[in-house]
Write the structure tokens for this entry.
Amino acid sequence: MMLQGLVLCALLAAVPALATPAGYVLTPSGPRPPECVHALPEGASVYEPEGAPFFHFRLPSGELTAPIRRCRAAGAAAMAEGDGWQAYVKQQMGDNATHTYIDGFNATWTVPPVPQEQAQTLFSFSGLQNIDWVPPQPQPTAFFDIIQPVLQYGYSAAGGFEGAWSIASWYVTLTGNTVYSPLKKVPEGGHIYGIMVRTAGESDSWFISTQHVEGNVTSAITVERNVLVSQPWAYVTMEVYDVDDCAQFPPAGSVSSFTGMTVSVGGKPFTPAWEVGADGQKPPVCGADVKVNSPSAVDLIY
Ligand SMILES: *[C@@H]1O[C@H](CO)[C@@H](O)[C@H](O)[C@H]1NC(C)=O
Ligand SMILES: *[C@@H]1O[C@H](CO)[C@@H](O)[C@H](O)[C@H]1NC(C)=O
């Protein structure tokens, strides 16, 4: 144990975590310019008219807000070492050639104990991306987006609660706008239920919901955008920012178990063969790890 501790300390000293760069805010796909990150009004959805350089929020009343210009020019900040995905599994699903698309991915996961120290941001989520890009890899030249129900510890662009976990649903891009639903505080222990479901057939509209099961507290968004017709890369991920001390992690060995994971492709149940991803931070901070137990169960290990 002692030796392991020393190795970890040496590792952390060699890889200092850098704070979110000045002028940027943190999202669950890394730092973004604040003008590209938007809070979704409660119950509203995101609607982008085809080919338009802007999108609207559709309020629960059905009314569209004034157009919000698509944030095209601004890129994300370069990823610092010490930040990004630490442990994850992935699986490509669907087949564009035959228009067989993934249309749903649901998962339940446990909320780990709160860390002893705070100054960091921890995210865990199930997610669907258009391409297989993983922070801290260099930014892709291709357009990138992800939908994700997210469990967060600490602060992000969506806000945060001191010393507590919280939930929100996100739609993140690197070169366009990012949208999140209202952040809600959740206690340690208990379960998060994340839903991503295409709202109709071969449509470009997704409902993304993050729920604290025991508290029956939900934060959800609906996003309608052309690019979401195909979203073939599925993940279960532990992502962290600004971790420079393992006391900023849940106690060593804490497990967040993702269970009851269900996937639907082309309207039929699909059995994933999860592959442990190798493009995250190397080596991961504080011995972060992931274990595949079955097609429907994966453990994130802190
Ligand atoms: C959970 O909350 C929803 C919406 O507020 C409500 O309709 C539902 O009855 C609640 N379910 C339980 C089990 O309390
Ligand atoms: C996920 O949950 C939603 C809401 O209950 C449901 O409509 C959908 O069929 C589920 N998808 C899968 C793949 O289990």
In short: DSSP finds one helix and 22 strands in the chain. The radius of gyration is 18 Å. Residues 216 surround 2-acetamido-2-deoxy-beta-D-glucopyranose (ligand 1) (CB under 6 Å). The chain has a mean pLDDT of 88.
